[in-house]
């Protein structure tokens, strides 16, 4: 399995921005399905975004309705990383954010369908 490590979390005020990074090792990410998920206290882990390779130079990205237009996924295949740019952050975005990857071609937003996970990075958005 690919090993994943997240970084970039922190404390920001509402309306601010953070850029999370997920560094992969053991496998190249370029053609793996990648996901970002988050888990708030007392809540189940939820889908934030997924990104998958579909053709040469082409990726398809899905976003949860709650983050659409504010969050963007970027891949850097040279560095074997995937970033999550988070803008216009809201207090309800507060959670531990995880990156995940899957070798499966299944088009799924469910955490159970991702088999490699990072340890998570805390994002806290104050009012």
Write the layout of secondary structure elements.
Layout (H helix, E strand, L loop, with lengths): L2 E5 L2 E4 L4 E8 L7 E7 L6 E10 L2 E6 L7 E6 L4 E6 L8 E8 L13 E2 L3 E6 L1
Parallel strand pairs: 2-11
Antiparallel strand pairs: 1-3, 3-8, 4-5, 4-9, 5-6, 7-8, 9-10, 9-11
Counting DSSP E segments of at least 2 residues, the number of strands comes to: 11
Span between N and C termini? 39 Å
Reading the helices and strands in chain order gives: EEEEEEEEEEE
Helix content: under 10%
Tell me the fraction of residues in β-strands, as a range. Answer: over 45%
Query: What overall geometry do the principal axes of the alpha carbons give?
Result: globular
Largest sheet: 7 strands, mixed
Overall radius of gyration: 14 Å
Quote the average pLDDT. Answer: 95
SSE-based structural type: mainly beta
Oligomer: single chain
Indicate the low-confidence ranges by residue numbers: none
- Total of DSSP H or I helical runs spanning 4+ residues: 0
Concise description?
Helix content is 0%, strand content 54%. The chain has no helices and eleven strands. The mean pLDDT is 95.
């Amino acid at each position: 399995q690919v090993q994943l490590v997240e970084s970039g979390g922190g404390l920001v005020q509402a309306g601010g921005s953070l850029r999370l990074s997920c560094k992969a090792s053991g496998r190249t990410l370029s053609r793996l399905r990648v996901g970002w998920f988050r888990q708030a206290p007392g809540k189940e882990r939820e889908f934030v975004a997924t990104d998958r390779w579909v053709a040469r130079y082409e990726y398809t990205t899905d976003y949860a309705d709650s983050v659409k237009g504010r969050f963007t996924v970027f891949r850097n295949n040279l560095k074997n990383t995937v970033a999550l740019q988070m803008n216009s952050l809201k207090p309800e975005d507060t959670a531990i954010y995880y990156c995940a990857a899957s070798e499966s071609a299944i088009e799924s937003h469910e955490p159970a369908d991702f088999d490699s996970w990072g340890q998570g990075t805390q994002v806290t958005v104050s009012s």
